[in-house]
Amino acid sequence: MIDIAIPQIAQELKLGRGQVAATVGLLDDGATVPFIARYRKENTASLDEVAITSIRDRLAQLRELWDRRDAILASLEKRGLLTDELRQAVLAAKSMAVLEDIYLPYRPKRRTRATIAREKGLEPLALLLWGQEHFDVNLVAADYVNPELGVENVKDALSGARDIIAEWVSEDATARQEIRKLFWSQGTFSSTVVSGKTSEAAKYRDYFEWEEPVANVPSHRALAMLRGEKEALLSVHIAPPAVAAIAILEQIFVTAATEASEQVRLAIQERYKALLEASMETEVRKETRVRAEDGAIKVFAENLRELLLAPALGQKNVMALDPGFRSGCKLVCLDRQGRLLHNDTIYPLLGERGDQEAGRKIVELCRQYDVEAIAVGNGTAGRETEAFLRTLELDPKIAVVMVNESGASIYSASEVARTEFPDKDITVRGAVSIGRRLMDPLAELVKLDPKSIGVGQYQHDVDQKALKERLDDVVGSCVNNVGVELNTASGELLSYVSGLGPRLATAIVEYRNANGPFASRAALKKVPRLGPKVFEQAAGFLRIRDGANPLDASAVHPESYKVVQAIAKDLGHPLDQVVGDASIAGQIDPSRYVSDKVGLPTLHDIIEELARPGRDPRQEFEPFYFAEGVNKIEDLTVGMKLPGVITNVTGFGAFVDVGVHQDGLVHISQLTDGYVKNPSDVVKVQQRVWVTVLEVDLERKRVSLSMKG
To answer: How many angstroms separate the Cα of 32 from the Cα of each of 24, 25, 49, 335, 473?
Structure first.
């Protein structure tokens, strides 16, 4: 089967067969996507993660098709229905839809009108009508009248025969394929409010009388209407014009101009909606949902990637504040490794005495712990706390940074936080999370279920298994792209390293706690259950700073250390001088070191690493400041221009934090002066923008913004 799949995947993805074959072989051998993309470029002709993931996912779909094909063949054979012709048809099916169309007439059925008609002995009459020859229909049908079987008259006989014909029509593979095409080309996605639910369904008022082509309905609108239907507030229907569908079926099945032909025509007209339209609507509805969910998951994944790869402040001494009014601000001080050194509660927003005491304490703690930056959560009282901090006589080098605290409360109540801080309450844990999120967003956010971070659209309405798989791919890609400090990383961060997973990550942390820091990457092999294959997959993505071998701090894989040692020897420099010296790296001729194990792509990567070992691919951190004096929604006025940060990108626009505790929406029509199909083509999460206030709805706490001009 693989031999058949490789050319098919290559054609579909417009890739070379050799690239696909090599990738499939590596995947089947247990290699991860990040490992293949980074360390097996010679095998795949430098395919990136996107292409490798596409191959992996398409192969999984084909294997699902093969499994279903095998199950169908086994079922047909067991029931004595498998002919050579049917076997060939099943084996030739290229998609699940075609396969199911072929199997449909043979699938075990529940009791239908056609089944009942057969029980009444009307199938021979249906076959006569199906042949559409010249004969007196009523005269022939009279022979099938049998009151004992429930066929009281000719009308009953013909009606039952038409039920059987209608089922044949609805199960015909050619008919289903043609009607399927019609659904996608002319079908409409329509929505109406359920009678008597107008007030209850107010949030869906845009869809009370809505209709648009099913092929073009955007992900967010499809999911909104389907959610409304699930809540019994909207009625949703998908169908093409019935007249067009019936005309197609008549063209296929009405092959003569006889009385029998008219019965076939009547069977189609009577039962099209109940049988074929209903069946196709179920299929197209499912496919529409899958497409909409894929779109929503893609948006979520793109947003998550930007959030995870947000610039990191780095290893600095940080003070973090989780703001509050009456309950006070929770304050923590963290060292450069993110360890908690001190925690307290201050009350800077409860009068003059409170702010004097809070100010004195903050200044003293900044000196005591050599604080280099202050992180302020952007929730309730965040802007007010930020403004208070700017009144203090702090070292001007100390940056005061607003931090998006979305999900911090979920972390603080998690098992991970309870294990790390068993004697601290959730408010202290939340403040720690805010501070660490400033230092390294990626390392902190991996501790959360991505769905709790607050980026994306309709994430609770999509297939949760598909969502988790896609988001895990994104997190893994980001973690391995940045690299992980082996001696300081949490178990949660290590679990996303290529080849590891939660169990081995826990084993690494336990070994580290028991034996002290790892002196080298090679020492990883001493961890129980961490074998050669796992080491191969993981080692290149793990970093050891200040180790005996300077290459352990780089992305050079241990399998290439001998090559680098040979390069250093040829250049006449000690290894520790070669690593990190761009001028020396520039002298290397990669063609001299090509072998059957190491090719030019890997050598170019090695040279780049030698020039800048362990380089963080994230952009350099720069503090962001909201407009002064604009702290709450009431401070906004129409026409005001403000700096902001994109917090979420959806199919209908982007949400922007302008510092008023309520994100404003830049509708897709307001993103640029030109036409925009996908907002993600224009803006990204964490992007800094300037916006103009278009409308402020205080009652509903909604802010409309524009980025035009």
So the answer is: 11, 12, 10, 34, 10
Cα 278 to Cα 290: distance, rounded to the nearest angstrom: 18
How far is CA 649 from each of CA 82, 226, 457, 660, 668, rounded to the nearest angstrom? Answer: 52, 21, 8, 19, 10
Rounded CA separation 252/254 (Å): 6
Q: Which of the four pLDDT bands, split at 50, 70 and 90, describes residue 38?
A: very high
Q: Where are the beta strands (DSSP E) in 436-500?
A: 484-485
Q: What confidence tens digit (pLDDT) does each residue in 334-362 have?
A: 999 899 999 999 998 887 777 889 999 99
Per-residue confidence (pLDDT) for residue 76, from 0 to 100: 92
Residue 446 tokens read as 């991996």
Token output for 537: 């997959």
pLDDT of residue 4: 79
Left (φ > 0), alpha (ψ -120 to 50) or beta: where does 314 sit?
left
**Mean predicted confidence (pLDDT) in 132-149:** 94
Cα distances (angstroms) measured from residue 148 to each of 22, 250, 270: 68, 34, 26
d(CA 386, CA 398): 13
If DSSP codes are grouped into helix, strand and coil, which group holds residue 644? strand
Q: Dump the DSSP string for 164-187.
A: HHHHHHHH-HHHHHHHHHHHHHH-
Chain-centroid distance, C-alpha 583: 42
Q: Do the beta carbons of residue 89 and residue 102 sit within 8 Å?
A: yes
Question: For the purposes of burial, counting CB atoms within 10 Å of the CB of 640, is it exposed (0-12), middle (13-18) or buried (19 or more)?
Answer: middle
pLDDT digits (tens, 9 = 90+) for 156-214: 999 999 999 999 999 999 999 999 999 999 999 999 999 999 989 888 988 999 999 99
Q: Name the nearest CA neighbour of 107 among 91, 92, 86, 128.
A: 86
**Contact between residue 693 and residue 642 where contact means Cβ atoms under 8 Å apart:** yes
Report pLDDT for 109.
Answer: 78
What pLDDT sits at residue 295?
A: 86
Domains of the chain and CATH, by start: 2-106 (1.10.10.650), 150-301 (1.10.3500.10), 318-439 (3.30.420.140), 502-611 (1.10.150.310), 633-706 (2.40.50.140)
Cα gap 376→386, rounded to integer Å: 7
